[in-house]
Design goal:
Blueprint (H helix, E strand, L loop, with lengths): L2 H8 L30 H45 L5 H19 L1 H4 L11 H25 L30
Amino acid sequence: MDKGKAVMGTGRRWAVDFSDQSTVPSSRDILDPPGFSRASPEQDDSATSRQKKDAEANWKLQKAWEVAQSPFKNLMMMGFMMWMAGNTVHLFSIGITFSALWQPLSALQSVGKIFEPFKDNKVELLMPKLVFLALNLGGLALGIWKLNTLGLLPTHASDWVSSLPPPQEVEHSGGGYAFH
């Protein structure tokens, strides 16, 4: 027998037919044991995929809250650095102050990009965004306060008009005893 004719004439040489042609009762006719249900794999897959989606949504919300609260650490660190810089105008205190102003401003400009990885129809990002905005506005207020304590903010009329006298100092400090 020719090898080529056998393959071409009868189909595949090693093929097996799995169709049930017998008249003997098969496993399809036997009842399932008590407690067993033949759920379709699609239903199981949909339940597990729903659980995975819920778990992913919870993870995204948790990470969004972590990102929203991250400016608090920066706020504390910047406050400590400003306290260490003192109230005199010199290069270090000006650099720290402008860094304290720049970081919240750049964070406020990129709120959409920062929370983009957590965007999902199941995740509500309004509250984390509001907390993020509030903490960055607090950092901005801290930087403006430092500018005021350094005397770099024009808060008096004499700062704008040179013919007006500067305001009188309210506080005076001194030490020691007065001897008469």
